[in-house]
Every structure is written in structure tokens, then in C-alpha cells.
Amino acid sequence: MADQFTSAVVTGASRGFGRAVAGALAARGVAVVGIARGEQDLRSAAEEFGDNFTPLVGDATDEGLARRVLAEHRPGLLVLNAGAVPHVAPVQEQTWESFSINWHNDTRHAFTWTKAALLAPLAPGSVVVEVSSGAAIGGSPLSGGYASAKAAVRYIRQYGADESERGGLGIRFVSLLPGLSPSGVGSVGVDAYAARSGLSREVFVEKLGPVLTPDLVAAAVLQLADDAGSGPEYTVDGSGLHAID
Predict the structure, then answer these.
(1) What are the extents of the domains in the chain?
(2) What are the pLDDT digits (tens) for 42-72?
(3) 3-state SS, residue 97
(4) Which of 34, 94, 182, 188 could be cross-linked to 22 through a Cys-Cys bond (beta carbons 3.0 to 4.6 Å apart)?
């Protein structure tokens, strides 16, 4: 990784999967720009990861921010992980505002940075990892529009890959679909689905099987970035990385 990419940009880098990805990259000698809204959490990450990590407080849906960051840092790896915590409730208890929150954050941010990567454009051989969710395949009835927002991220990746090929840009676009995890954003879902099932959190997590951790997601991102021959879409769960046929 350190030989292939000297710089990376990670959105949603202050907590959960994004923080783990940023930390793993920095540990391998990559200069990482970590973007998130939470200044305190970003400062904490900077203290933990050292000089290879540059915190940048900002809204990842901001098109101007995306253009400026890509122009200034020219990353070889772009990890699009930012997203909002969904409002947890069945559909009849949602409002339109709560139902659509992930479309306005997760989906819009993927659109913003994919567009910016194509227009810059990033250098040939660059990799864009778009973090979707296993919910895009299986649904998520207690999290409003979350599943459909993440499904849209998959399509945006496909559109980006098609435009890269059509324009001869040589940018590789990959989707990563993490399964349900008891950490980060997934913790809210675990609590909700455990309650819906009449199970304790501990029993519900045990039934999920091997636990998906942020470190496993980070390892998956590094593996995808390292492997130039990798396919376009993967799931990741507690047992590792799996190609989507």
C-alpha cells in the first residue's frame, strides 16, 4: 500500500469504520486526510494516528470541499464512508424528513465525491472505495430510507466505473457492503433489531455469528486497494471479504 499510494482521503473519518480505515492507512505510511463534521473526534484521531493523519472538519456533501481537497491532495485512494445515523422506527412511525436523512447524507456524499473524482480527474490507477451496506441487498425495515440510500451508492459506483472506462481515465471504483456490526452506526440497528426480536443485545449479537469489527472493515479496504485485479463489489462480515457475483 505505501508503495502504491502515497496519499488517501477518507470521509467519515472521526468514528467507526472510517476512523479504523484512516488509522490503518496512516500506520502503513500513507498520508491521510480525514474528513468529518466532528472536530473533537477528529482531533482525537489526529493525536492517535500521528503526523500521517491530517484532520479536516467539514461537510462531506459539500461539492466545493470535494473539489478543493482532490485538487490539493491528489489522493491515490479515496474512501467514501461518511453517512448519517438513521432514524430507527418502522415505516409508519417515520416522517418524510426522518425517512430520507440517509439520502441527503450518505447518497449525496457519494454522488458529490464520485463526480469530483471524475471531473478532477484523479490519476490513472487511483482507487475509489464507496462504502455501501449489506442493507442494500437485504433491506432494513427499521431504518427508514437507509437501505435504499445505500443501494443508490452501489449504482453511483457503477456509474463512476462506466464513466471512467468511457473516458479512458483509469480510475477503479469498488463498492464495499459491510454487514450489521455492533459498533458505530450499526450499534443503533443492533439494539433496535434485538428489541424487535425480543432478544437481549448480547444474544442477538451472538446469533449474528462472527462479529464484524471496524478493524475488519479497514483490512478489507486495504485489501481492495492493494489488489488491482479485484472485482467491482464485495461484502464484508465477521468472516472476511466476499466478492458479489
Answers:
(1) 7-181+213-237
(2) 999 999 999 999 999 999 999 999 999 999 9
(3) helix
(4) 34
